[in-house]
Design a protein that fits this description.
The protein has seven helices and 17 strands. It is of the alpha+beta class and 288 residues long. It folds into two domains: 54 residues, RNA-binding S4 domain (Structural Genomics Hypothetical 15.5 Kd Protein In mrcA-pckA Intergenic Region, Chain A); 222 residues, 2-Layer Sandwich (Pseudouridine synthase), CATH 3.30.2350. Helix 1 crosses helix 2.
Length: 288
């Protein structure tokens, strides 16, 4: 391996994303062969030189790409100062230093990717890639087509209109509404805030897919590695990962019983039930 920029080496080793790695370098926390480096253009050869972060030697680890079916009431961070359960509690069997690709809200369940490939994470989160994110939502209030059209066109949040979205009505339950929505942007708590702004508070929310990757076959708290076929499709569509690696031979991993969520999927929160709802709504008049 020839010399590469330090931030790329650190990102590939799973130390941090490339942007965070740059911060580590500029703050003087990275050393090459015992010499502190602060210049971002510095290159090194990880096979021939000793690279350290805060005195700890950086060793390259195999790249991993993991799909977790995140349960509700779980924080999408590597640690939580309040002591709440985090997504890392469910992937402890992986030896890689994984980090979440983006976040899901505390009470939102569904598809969450984790990886130790900083370039992969940054590529999927970059706004230019317009990664599709499919959700199923339950809101308080009986939404009609004109209300759904508002969500389709975009809702003003903090003085800025959200990007157009695909919205598909599923059903009414009394004075509540179930629908699917596909976003191509990832604003903080976007769907919850859209509900607040339009008078339809979100009661339940689950992400059915991210970058067209679904959690089909996984119960809340279970995870698996992305397949080679999935990685190839993502590379063709979004340009990442840069290099396709063979996924470890590993069966679906359940959460440890001590950290497993209470349990069952909320009604309407699985892709299978959503498909059933779609066929039901298309077979009968929806009242629109």
């Amino acid at each position: 391996m020839s010399e590469e920029r330090l931030q790329k080496i650190l990102a590939r080793a799973g130390v941090a994303s490339r942007r965070k790695a740059e911060e580590l370098i500029t703050r003087g926390r990275v050393a090459v062969d015992g010499r502190i480096v602060t210049e971002l253009g510095t290159k090194a050869d990880p096979k021939k030189q000793r690279i350290e972060v805060d005195g700890r030697v950086v060793t390259a680890e195999a790249l991993e790409y993991v799909l977790l079916h995140k349960p509700r009431a779980v924080v999408s961070t590597t640690r939580d100062p309040e002591g709440r359960k985090t997504v890392m509690d469910f992937v402890r069997r992986s030896e890689a230093r994984l980090v979440p690709v983006g976040r899901l809200d505390y009470q939102t369940s569904g598809v969450l990717l984790l990886t130790n490939d900083g370039d992969f994470a940054n590529g999927l989160l970059h706004p230019s890639h317009r990664i599709p994110r499919l959700y199923v939502a339950k809101v308080k209030g009986k939404m009609q087509e004109l209300h759904l059209d508002v969500w389709r066109r975009g809702v003003e949040l903090d003085g800025r209109k959200t990007a157009p979205a695909k919205v598909h009505f599923l059903r009414h339950e009394g004075d509540k509404t179930w629908f699917e929505i596909t976003l191509q942007e990832g604003q903080n708590r976007q769907i919850v805030r859209m509900g607040e702004a339009t008078g339809f508070p979100v009661m339940r929310l689950a992400r059915l897919s991210f970058a067209e990757i679904t959690a089909d076959g996984l119960r809340p708290g279970q995870w698996r590695h992305l397949s080679a076929d999935e990685l190839v499709k993502m590379k063709r569509r979004y340009g990442v990962p840069k290099k396709i690696v063979k996924a470890p031979a590993m069966k679906t991993r359940p959460a440890d019983s001590r950290t497993s969520p209470r349990g069952r999927k909320p009604k309407g929160a699985s892709s299978a039930s959503a498909r059933k709802d779609r066929s039901r709504s298309r077979a009968k008049p929806s009242g629109r």
